Amino acid sequence: MSSDNQWSADEDEGLLSRLIRKSRDSPFVPVGIAGFTTVGSYGLYKLKYRRDQRMSIHLIHTRVAAQGFVVRAVTLGVLYSMYKDYIRPQSFNVSKK
């Protein structure tokens, strides 16, 4: 493979610096990842105290809660991006006239 391949990973960029760069581009993705991890960990912790609830039902509820958190974070990220790209520039253009 040639070294000018645009699809190859950047060797100078480490995992942490790449995560920081990506979180600057879309700030709600790390929030979604953290929420998914938190809800999943809490669900696994509560697995011990599920009483008479079946394990499959408990795991389904945990998965739905974690996915719901991620969907909310992605939705907020899209709304923030739309605001930043479309609404905020229009409000600055109107005030300059």
3D structure, described in words:
The protein starts with 14 loop residues before the first helix and ends with a helix. It has 3 helices and no strands. The protein is an all-alpha fold and 97 residues long. The protein has helices at residues 15-25, 28-46, 55-96. The longest helix has 42 residues, at 55-96. Helix 2 (28-46) runs antiparallel to helix 3 (55-96). The model has no long low-confidence stretch (mean pLDDT 81). Helices cover 74% and strands 0% of the residues.
Short description:
With 97 residues, the protein is mainly α. 74% of the residues lie in helices and 0% in strands.
Describe this protein with a few key phrases.
membrane, mainly alpha
Roughly what fraction of the amino acids lie in strands? Answer: under 5%
Chain-averaged pLDDT: 81
Largest sheet: none
Radius of gyration: 20 Å
Map the helices and strands.
Layout: H1 15-25, H2 28-46, H3 55-96
Helix pairs in contact: 2-3
InterPro entries: Hypoxia_induced_domain (IPR007667), RCF1 (IPR050355)
Domain HIG1: 1-92
Subcellular location: Mitochondrion membrane
